[in-house]
Amino acid sequence: MIKLYRFPYSCYALKVQYLLDKLKLEYEAINVPYGDRTELVEVTGGRVVVPAIAHDGHIVVESRTICEYLLGLIDHELVPTAKAATIWAYADWCDSILEDVLFRLATPGIADKFPTSFERALFVFIKERKFGTGCVEAWQKTQPDLINNAKVLLGKTLESIAVNGYVAGETVSYADVTLLGHLAMVEYANPQLLSAISEELPRYMARVRAA
């Protein structure tokens, strides 16, 4: 049994979880309390960030490393050799360039979903320590600009999806799993944001989830 330590909104943890689903690996998703990461720290030997997995005596951290580990456990068709460079490059682009816009778009909505005022305040404080005082409020105010940026970034992806159904061809791949994780973060914050980027995104997400 694989244990996945996650925050329910984390695009990186969601990517890992969707990969587990696609590989049909048995797992338990453990939601780490935002304000109490004791178990996560104990399991990982000092890390306070997700995702992390525990499997067969191994602790694996960092989402890309985790996904490489999981992809190596069983045979699959998520990364065909002929398309491996394209699929990994796209996934890495999602985890960097695309994430930089989508996480700003999603952050205000995520902040509002914490069950306690303490967790929300801690979440906002951590973001402000990295991106500056008032960043979450600023991202809320500039939401239309962030949506437009996302439209530009996802333009070619949407063109490919319209023709093929999926990012790298006519079947689901690791590229789709990665993109789904990032889109699911936005969906968690506010599903209407996805439709504001493109009406096709909710349909695409449903297709990938069902594949």
Q: SSE order in H/E notation?
A: EHEHEEHHHHHHHH
Distance between the termini: 23 Å
How would a textbook summarize the main sheet? 4 strands, mixed
Number of helices: 10
Mean pLDDT: 98
What is the name of the CATH architecture of the largest domain?
Up-down Bundle
Work out the radius of gyration: 17 Å
Cα shape: globular
Beta strand count: 4
Low-confidence stretches: none
CATH class assignment of the largest domain: Mainly Alpha
Which strand order does the major sheet show? Answer: 2-1-3-4
Q: Work out the count of structural domains.
A: 2
Helix fraction by DSSP (H/I, runs of at least 4): 55-70%
- Bin the strand percentage: 5-15%
What does the model show?
- The chain has ten helices and four strands, in the order E-H-E-H-E-E-H-H-H-H-H-H-H-H.
- It has helices at residues 11-23, 38-44, 63-71, 84-112, 117-131, 135-141, 143-164, 174-189, 191-197, 200-210, and strands at residues 2-6, 27-31, 52-55, 58-61.
- It has a four-stranded mixed β-sheet with strand order 2-1-3-4, with helices on both faces.
- Helix 1 packs across helix 8, helix 4 (84-112) runs antiparallel to helix 7 (143-164) and helix 4 (84-112) packs parallel to helix 8.
- The longest helix has 29 residues, at 84-112.
- The two termini are 23 Å apart.
- The model has no long low-confidence stretch (mean pLDDT 98).
